[in-house]
Specification:
Number of domains: 2
Number of helices: 6
Helix content: over 70%
Radius of gyration: 23 Å
Number of strands: 0
């Protein structure tokens, strides 16, 4: 199992360098492209022609999405840079999470039945807390609860939040039940682990 963990460590280190290099190159390209699009660089010069012919076609899919959302098409390169940065952070975090779960699973198997119970309990409460976080983020960015990407979060968290809403009043438009449920799940997990 040590070999798998070393492989994950090497992969994470390599991807860190790759994402950093991609972000750095894209930051330079985005800055120059913005200068061309905002006409701070001569639009008839060699740099502007090069960017219009080679770089702008790369940003066309991003530009379409930005325009459909009501944004400025000149901001498309900045959105692409943001997507690379956020995508890199998510990818590295996901790989780090998978690595830590492999490590914890190995320790649990070596620790016996009680350690496996603690691991499964931690996973269960972790999934419930992630579902609540996804639900809150979806309410901020107005994602439909019926979307195939987030339906699971609403399905798992609703049985927890519905009884709390009957007890806890909302403050105007602010529903604090997800915050209370998140911390209550953490306390319940700690309590169960302390008596198990």
């Amino acid at each position: 199992m040590t070999g798998v963990l070393e492989l994950f460590d090497a992969l994470i280190r390599a991807l860190r360098v790759v994402f950093f290099a991609m972000a750095a190159v894209l930051a330079v390209v985005t800055s120059v492209d913005w200068l061309v699009r905002s006409r701070r660089i001569n639009p008839f010069g060699k740099v502007a022609r090069f960017f219009r012919q080679t770089v702008d076609p790369i940003f066309v899919p991003v530009e379409r999405r930005v325009v459909r959302a009501g944004g400025n098409p000149a901001a498309a390169p900045w959105w692409a840079l943001g997507a690379v940065i956020v995508g890199g952070i998510v990818m590295l975090s996901l790989l780090g999470f998978i690595r830590s779960q492999i490590f914890m699973s190995t320790l649990a198997v070596e620790g016996g039945g009680r350690a496996i119970f603690h691991l499964l309990l931690g996973w269960t409460f972790g999934i419930l807390q992630i579902a609540i976080i996804v639900r809150v983020i979806c309410s901020w960015i107005r994602v439909s609860p019926y979307s195939k990407w987030v339906r699971w979060a609403f399905a798992i968290s609703e049985p927890i939040l519905r009884p709390l809403r009957a007890i806890i009043p909302s403050f105007g438009m602010i529903d604090i039940t997800p915050i209370i449920a998140f911390f209550a799940l953490g306390l319940l997990e700690s309590f169960i682990l302390s008596i198990a």
